[in-house]
Specification:
globular; alpha/beta; 353 residues; five-stranded mixed beta sheet; single chain
Amino acid sequence: MKILAIETSCDETACAVVEDGRRILSNIIASQIDAHKLYGGVVPEIASRLHSESIVGVCEEALAGAGCKLSDIDAVAVTYAPGLIGALLVGVNFAKGLALAVNKPLIPVHHIKGHAAANYLAYPELEPPYLCLAVSGGHSQIMEVKSYTEFSVIGRTIDDAAGEAFDKAARALGFPYPGGVYIDKAALSALTRNTSLNSQSYHLPYPKTPNELDFSFSGLKTAVINLIHNTEQRGEELDKDAVAAAFQNKICEILTTKLLKAAEITQNNAGGGGSRQAGRGSRQKIALTGGVAANSGLRQMLTERAGGDFEIYIPPLSLCGDNAAMIASQGYYEYLAGNTAGMDLNAFANLDL
């Protein structure tokens, strides 16, 4: 079954064709970073207009790359929530038009479920149930993936998302947008000079939350900004790479520690089974996904701390950020579960799993 998918939830216009939920035939992304870099972040109105300008060409390129005509497509999947409402509406209305024109099923896909499905494209053997940490510019949450379409959120951010904190700290350090990649590069630079990450030079707090599995990054972001300003006011030299390293290390520590705690809790609640696969000797499965999953520090820390006890699934860099292949993959399983939509499908800026 070939599914054409459309993703326009933020600042990437993406279309892809995926076969049977696992095989990528094409995956085209038109990035808007250069347009938003001038403003230091995504401008919703600009994002919507650029989606409108790009979506036809991106879709044509995806079909051509897959060696398909529109008539060869079996269904059309689209991200309908959550995201920037204007951007989502561009994709949803375009998908509705395509599905109506070729009389094919229309499949609505939740953006976070799509991120989880990115790992299905990289790991054909991965099947639910498993535990998944989704971290991006707008989302940070721990989910139990009970089936391909049934998710339960057991931990979430109560303020800023991890990716948002990365971008705001990067701006305070004077790095360009998007800041996460520059924080990562600066942290790697600090590592080459000091294998201890200069952790004693810049102390940052570990935010506490009422629910031990929830995240809070607002205070940590503020602590970095205050550290930068106080250092400048005292006329002292600021080691930006070391600050970036300390900040990244703290976020990675928080994400990894809480994910492993969630794994412990879910395993104990299930009497030792948790999210394990059936069968002797199998280990509990943990997946990482979302734009922040591209962070080298997080990938390394999770692998080092959990690799000996868990099966770890981390998507390749090409599937960490927003893309349409992950939407097509999740769309396949939504279709099998009978989750299709009519021409009254609407977009939603906020929608819980």
